[in-house]
Amino acid sequence: MGESRQELVAWLNNLLQLNVTKVEQCGTGAALCQVFDSIFYDVPMARVKFNANTEYAYLQNFKILQNIFAKHGIDRPVPVEALVKCKMQDNLEFLQWSKRYWDQYFPGHDYDPVSRRKGQGGVGATGAAPPRAAASTARRAPAASNSAAPRTRTPLGGAGGGGQASAALREENNVLKETVAGLERERDFYFSKLRDIELLIQQAMEADPELEKDEGLLKQIQTILYSTEEGFEIPAETEGAEEETF
């Protein structure tokens, strides 16, 4: 038996300085990403959406989590389709497992969760940085080797007005980068679907050349796929572009 829902929520809020009220909120994937960032210190937190409010955005968070699992050889399937439904039992079981993993592998370093998530707020985040990381006071297993612990980092910031202005500009810049990155991922997501449709139509026409002459449904879909607006130019493909798998 693992911890109760109340115990897990208290642990999560203590570790990450959030104000999560129920385990179902872990279905966004954001808090889970940061739990593993507190262990490995290499989750791309700038890409994690703490204000996600759509299932598509949840999927992007879980894609990041799955990449971290693959990178560190964590042999545990992530039941994404169940978790993103934000049902209590599925998220409770996965959070209980995550807590056991954290107890075993958290290396014991100071961890500033607010700084790591770049000041992101949204549902579940307090937005206030603690003087010390709560992780050091939470229950955990002893680290196997201190030399393997990631280095502690000090958040950037200044005491004067100039420092506050710089921090505000950095935060605004991060928000803009996040927005652009999100739009690019959404564009690529839908483009891949259109590309799959195009390939299916091409395969069908190669198998039956008569379909090329027929002005039926397949031909009409192909016409729509290849239509462009005036002034539109098809962008050149970027060589060596990183392909992400989910």
From TrEMBL:
Q: Which UniProt keywords apply?
A: Cell cycle, Cell division, Cytoplasm, Cytoskeleton, Microtubule, Mitosis
Region span, Disordered: 116-167
Q: Where in the cell is it found?
A: Cytoplasm, Cytoskeleton
Domain of life of the source: Eukaryota
Statement: the UniProt record of this protein carries the keyword Cell division: yes
- Any one of the GO CC terms: spindle midzone
Segments forming domain EB1 C-terminal = 158-234
Query: Main site of residence?
Result: cytoplasm
Give start-end positions of Low complexity composition bias.
126-154
Q: Name one GO molecular function term.
A: microtubule plus-end binding
GO BP term, example: cell division
Q: Which segments constitute the Calponin-homology (CH) domain?
A: 2-103
- For the keyword Transferase, the answer is no
Q: Which Gene3D superfamilies match?
A: 1.20.5.1430, Calponin-like domain
- Identify the InterPro entries for this entry: CH_dom, CH_dom_sf, EB1_C, EB1_C_sf, MAPRE
User: What PANTHER family does the record point to?
Assistant: MICROTUBULE-ASSOCIATED PROTEIN RP/EB FAMILY MEMBER
The family annotation for this protein states: Belongs to the MAPRE family.
The name of this protein is Calponin homology domain-containing protein
